[in-house]
Amino acid sequence: MPSPDSLHDVRAAVLSADRQFQVIDGGRRGGGPPEGDTDPGHCPVTPIGHLDGTYYLLDSVGQLRSLSARQIGNRHDLVGLFGGHDDWLRAEFPKKAQCKIKDSNGQDTTEERIVDFRINSVAAFLQAGCTAAGLFGDHILIRRPGIWAERDGMPVVHCGDQVLIGDRLEPAGTRTGNQIWAAAPPASRPAQPCGPDIGRTLQHQLQELWNYRCAGGAIMAMGLLSCAYYGAAIPWRPAGFLIGGAGSGKSSLLTVLRGASPMNFYTNDTSKAGLEQSLDGRAMPSFIDEASDREDQRGARALLDLVLSASGGEGTRGSRGGVDGRARKIEVAGSIIMASISPPDMKSQHLGRFTIIDLVRPDEGADYSTEHKELAQWAQKHGAALWGRALAGWTRYRDSLAIYRRALAAIGCAPREMDQLGALLAGWFILTSDGLPNEKQAAGGVEAVRDFIRDREDVVAQDAPMQMVSHLLSTTVQLQRSTERKSIGELIERVLTRKLAVEADGPDFSRGVAGEVLAQHGIRVIRADEPKDKRGRDAPRLALGNGIWFAPNNSMLKDLFNGTPFEGNRWVYEVMRLESARRSKTNVRIGQTPPGKYLWVSAEELGFDYDEDE
C-alpha cells in the first residue's frame, strides 16, 4: 500500500497541472471561400437531413443552409453551396459536349470537353444524401458561437470560424454526436492561461474601487465572471444583479466585468423578446444595464423569468411565432449579469438563482471615475487570458464546487444556496488560486461571503407557501355586529389562547366570536386540548397538537386571495406544499360550509404555538 506521503505527492502533482490549452488563431473555412478542393472525392457540402420537402445542408464553409426541392435544382443555389467554386461539381458530375477545335494541322475537328456540371444529377445526389441522413428535427442541435458542453461535460468553445473541442481545433461545420458547430463570423477567443496573480489583482481593484453593502462583494463579482466564462457548459449558471443608487458605480462595475469577457452580449435597453432574438443559439456571458429601471415592471419580471430558465439545465428552449406566421425555435443559455438602481419584485425562485450585489456611493469627496475607466481597459487587456485560465481549470472547478458545497452544508446552508454560492466560490477560487481549496480555505471562503448566505429558515420564509400564509394571516376581516376589523392571524391566535375573553378588546372579541368569524371564512381551529362535542365525539384532527382546517370550497376564503399570485385555487396548491399539510379522508364540518375532505395544517408550522396558559 502506498504511504500517505507518496499519495500526497501524487495528489499535489495532479492538482498543480491544469489541462493544456490551445489558442485559436482563426481558420480557412470561416475566413473566406476555399482556394480549391484538395480531395476531389470528398464533397465540400455535408447533407444533414430533410423535413417536409426542405433539405438541410452545411455549405462549403460550414454554414447551415435550407433549400427547397426547386432551389436545390437551381444552378445559382448549387454554386452558392460550394462557395462559388464548381471545380468539384465538374470533376464528379461533368457535363460533356463535342466542341469544334483546330488540330495541329489547322484542320477543323471535334473533341469532347467538360463544359459544365450536370445540375439534375447533383440535385439528386444531395437529395439522396439528405434522405440518408434522416429527418431533420430538434434532436439535431445547431450550435452558434459560445461556450457549450460536450457529451462528457467538457466546455467546447465555438469561435465562429473554428471550434476548440477538448485539446484539438476543428473547423466550423464539424459534427459531434447530435451537435453541429455551424460556421459564423469569427468571434473573440481565449488566450493562453494567465497565472492567479492576474485574478488576485482584479479582485483587489474591485475591492478598493467600489463600496459594497455586504462584505464579500468583490469575491461574488469574481465568481460571477468566472462562471460566465463557462457559458452553457456548467449545469448551474449563476446570474447576478448589481444594484445601487445613482453614483454608486454599478454601470462602471458592469463595464469592467464586460471588458474582462472577450465574447459577450451587451444591451442597455431590451425586452424579453429582444433578448431572446439576440441571444438565440448563443451561449455566452450577457450584460444588461438598467435592466429593471422602467415603468413596465411586468416586463422586468418577464425578463427575470427568462434569466431564470436560461441559467439552469438546457437553458430556455421553446418556440415563438414569426412575422411570416411560422413558429421559430429559440434557445438561450448562459450566465446573465444585470445592473439597475433596484431589482424588480423577485419571487423565491428568482432569489435562488440571482446573487444581488448592493453597491453604496463612495465616501464624500471620493471620485473613482478615472480609476474605473482604467480598470475597464486593464480588464479588456487581460480578459482573454483570464478566460483561458478558467477553461484550463475546468476539472479544478468541478472538484472545487463539490468542496465548497460541503463547506456550505456544514453551516446549515439551504441546498439551492449551496448550488449558487458553491458555483460562485469555486469560480472565484479558480481565477485567484492554484490547486484545490483545502478544508481551511473552503471554510474561510464561506465565512468571507457570510452576508450573502441564506440558511434554510430564510429560504422557507421566502418560499411561495409561506408568502401565501403571510398574506392570509395579515388579511383583515370584519367582526360580527361591529365595524371593527381583525386580521385572520389575530382571530386564530385568540382561539388558541385559554382566556375566554380579552377585556381590552371588548366583548365582541371573545374566543367564541373569533371562532365564528373564522368559520364563516372556511377556517376551523382545533386546540391541542379541544373537548369532545355534545355527542361525545372527539374533535377532528390529523395530528397531535394545535391544528387548523381549511375549506378550499369556501367562497369567502377564496376571496381573500383575489388580486394576488394565489388567486383562484392556486392558494390550495401552496397550502399542500407545507410540510404538515394533509387532506382528510373523511368529511369534516366547518361552520355552515358543507362538509368535505378539507386540509389540515399544524398551527405550529404557521407560527402559532400555545402550549401554556397565556
SSE order and pairing:
Blueprint (H helix, E strand, L loop, with lengths): L3 H12 L12 H4 L14 E6 L2 E5 L5 E5 L6 H7 L5 H6 L1 E9 L5 E10 L1 H15 L7 E3 L2 E4 L5 E4 L3 E4 L2 E4 L3 E2 L2 E3 L14 H14 L1 E2 L4 H13 L9 E6 L5 H10 L5 E3 L4 H8 L6 E4 L7 H14 L5 E6 L5 E6 L3 E5 L7 H4 L2 E7 L8 H24 L1 H17 L4 H18 L6 H10 L7 H7 L1 H11 L1 E3 L6 E3 H9 L14 H10 L2 E4 L20 E4 L4 H5 L10 H7 L5 E2 L4 E3 L2 E4 L2 E4 L12
Parallel strand pairs: 6-12, 14-19, 14-20, 15-16, 16-19
Antiparallel strand pairs: 1-2, 2-3, 4-5, 7-8, 8-9, 9-10, 11-12, 13-20, 17-18, 21-22, 23-24, 24-28, 25-28, 26-27
Question: Could you explain the architecture of this structure?
Answer:
The protein is an alpha+beta fold and 614 residues long. It has 4 domains: 96 residues, no CATH class; 50 residues, no CATH class; 233 residues, Rossmann fold, CATH 3.40.50; 144 residues, no CATH class. Helices cover 37% and strands 20% of the residues. It has a 6-stranded mixed beta sheet, sandwiched between helices. About 7% of the residues have low confidence.
